Amino acid sequence: MDLKKIPRGEINGVPMITKFKGVMIELFKGYPGFQYFGIFESYFGKELGEEIVRILHQDKLLDIFPKKENEPPRYRLTGEGVNMAISMINLDYSEKMHKFTIWIIMLTIITAIVGIIQIYPFLLKCLEWLMSYGIRA
Known about the structure:
Layout: H1 15-29, H2 39-44, H3 46-58, E1 62-65, E2 74-77, H4 79-132
Antiparallel strand pairs: 1-2
Helix pairs in contact: 1-4
């Protein structure tokens, strides 16, 4: 993946970030009652998924539970992982609010233009009235 081709501010253009957000939100849905296994591996592939789990464990975002016989390692979010998941949710929310804010600004500009168009004839009549009394603008 060539990161130079991703437009600035377009974090959804990075597929790994998009997948990671989804996984963290899924893990957050089961916090603290559930232990998960294989989620990262199913999203990212076996080798990369295991590497991501190892990195998140080192960063204290995941707790890894002792492995039982013939079972994959189980994990769940830590307190720091919950903060990361909430940050991912806030990121989604802020992206949606950015689009909403642009729509509100556009509608405000359109409303201002329509208001100016409607008041324009009134301003012309006022100018004519002032000119009829000899006041020069």
